[in-house]
Write a structure and sequence with these properties.
Blueprint: H1 5-8, E1 14-15, H2 18-24, E2 38-40, H3 45-58, E3 62-65, E4 82-85, E5 92-96, E6 101-105, H4 110-119, H5 136-142, H6 149-152, E7 159-166, E8 171-174, H7 188-191, E9 199-207, E10 215-222, H8 225-238, E11 241-248, H9 249-259, E12 271-278, H10 282-295, E13 298-303, H11 307-318, H12 320-324, E14 330-335, H13 341-355, E15 360-366, E16 371-377, H14 384-404, H15 429-442
Parallel strand pairs: 2-4, 3-4
Antiparallel strand pairs: 1-2, 5-6, 6-9, 7-8, 7-9, 10-12, 10-13, 11-12, 11-15, 14-16, 15-16
The structure holds D-malate and zinc ion (ZN).
Length: 456
């Protein structure tokens, strides 16, 4: 059936060999079957429009594919779908200094966008460990967050305009890079976070900002889970933070072993907080540190003395995900309001200790945003299926705690396949009905990433 693809694309834009299907048919999840029927590489928006029209005519399912760094299976093709990769649509199309807007195709890699911004003397602040491979289109489709959200917000906050090919083949130009535009529904935000279920993001106007002054990094050893939040409050009252991340001692052990890094402090602490802030705030930060020490919240700390040391300290946090990937982790990506976080942490910690006494549990996350990554590591001898089965049994109990606090079962990793069947813990039946109705309007043929986010 995918032979029809040859009508609308050239042979060099289509791959069907087993290696390519395996490579482009999967994201960073490893728990779903990978079985696309073809991978295609559009060169232009026209190519995408023709592909969508063809898919509607022939009944093909399309899976949008960016850097494939997602952790929820949103870019996995498990059932004969055609993967649509944006690898060839990777050009920066223009820059307007007066607007501080860069226009780029969906396949521009995040790090390339950051570098382009720096060349203009400006700054693109959305950043995460996968910025070397993730693409801007995928970042928008998942509303990617990362390590600087506390200061700069999410991808959504930087999207000033969006060109989208909907599932029915219409090309929609949303918001035109305007700052103010009070003309009704802002369709741009419908596509941000839509996980490729409504249409293809083909181009975006991205806002840039003034670069920050040089940054300092501090790592603190924290005595108790709750104290991490007390430390956050203390520092936030004193200065503007660019990042406030946390990780547990187990997470530190995994990352130092994996990357051969030195431990940050002389002693061991149950938890660590990593803070980043402007160089000019160093005295305020020192005072806040003394206050936390006096309260007994922190036991020790280190402050970066050079850019190289700052980068090394960041590795302790940014390298965790990669360092535990070999343990086939069961990943939770939870969010509650900061005010709810201390009680929520106690509840989830107790639940985890009771439910997984025999598993290693690795905590880390963007705690300054109320976002917790709870990773359960698979013991070596246990089969993956049995392990995931155990984790799935416990998940509803964790998600009940999330729902009780009006939190999110997926703060920044998206829903994809992994969290789809749990969506009702975070979204009401009325909301789900609206989401399904929107899907029907924009993708009546149900060709766009079927089975992701919503059941159909
Ligand atoms: C992170 O914060 O390191 C990323 O979201 C990846 C992960 O959670 O593993
Ligand atoms: Zn994260």
């Amino acid at each position: 059936m995918t032979q029809a693809l040859d009508e609308c694309l050239s042979p060099k834009q289509i791959r069907r060999d087993a290696d390519s299907l395996q490579h482009w048919g999967v994201d960073w999840t490893r728990s779903f079957p990978v079985a696309p029927s073809a991978v295609v590489f559009p060169d232009s928006t026209d190519d995408v429009v023709r592909l969508v029209q063809l898919a509607n005519r022939e009944g093909l399912s399309l899976v949008p594919s960016g850097g494939r760094t997602g952790l929820s299976g949103g870019a996995v093709a498990s059932d004969g779908e055609v993967v649509v990769s944006f690898d060839r649509m990777d050009r920066v199309l223009g820059f307007e200094p007066a607007d501080r807007l860069v226009t780029c195709q969906a396949g521009v890699v995040t790090q390339a966008l950051q570098a382009y911004a720096a060349e203009q003397g400006l700054f693109y602040p959305v950043d995460f460990a996968s910025s070397g491979s993730s693409q801007i289109g995928g970042n928008i489709a998942t509303n990617a967050g990362g390590i600087k959200v506390i200061r700069y917000g999410l991808t959504r906050d930087w999207v000033a305009g969006l060109r989208v090919v909907t599932g029915s083949g219409a090309l929609i130009d949303c918001n035109h890079g305007l700052i103010k535009n009070a003309t009704g529904y802002d369709l741009r935000h419908l596509f941000v976070g839509s996980e490729g279920t409504l249409g293809f993001i083909v181009e975006a106007d991205i806002r840039l900002t003034t670069p920050p002054e040089p940054q300092l990094v501090m790592v603190l050893g924290v005595n108790r889970f709750r104290d991490v939040l007390a430390v956050l409050g203390c520092f936030q009252n004193a200065l503007t933070l660019t990042a406030f991340e946390f990780f547990s001692e187990l997470a530190l052990q995994k990352v130092t072993a994996h990357r051969g890094l030195a431990r940050p402090l002389a002693g061991e602490a149950p938890f660590y907080a990593l803070l980043e802030f402007d160089e000019s705030a160093v005295e305020l930060a020192a005072e806040a540190f003394e206050a936390c020490l006096a309260e007994g919240w922190v036991q020790d700390g280190v402050l970066s003395q050079s850019q190289a040391q700052a980068a090394n300290l960041w590795q302790l946090r940014e390298g965790i995900s990669e360092s535990i990937a070999g343990y086939t982790p069961y990943k939770n990506d939870l969010a509650v309001r900061i005010s709810q976080m201390p009680d929520f942490l106690d509840e989830v910690d107790a639940l985890v200790q009771e439910s997984y006494p025999d598993f290693e549990v690795c905590w880390y996350g963007h705690i300054g945003d109320g976002n917790l990554h709870l990773n359960i590591l698979k013991p070596q001898g246990l089969a993956a299926e049995a392990f995931f089965q155990r984790c799935h049994e416990i998940s509803p109990r964790i998600f009940e705690r999330v729902a009780f606090r009006n939190g999110s079962i997926s703060a920044e990793h998206g829903v994809g396949l992994l969290k789809r069947d749990f969506l009702s813990y975070s979204r009401s039946s009325e909301e789900l009905a609206v989401m399904e109705a929107l899907k029907q309007v924009l993708d009546p043929g149900q060709i766009m990433n079927p089975g992701k986010l919503l059941r159909r």
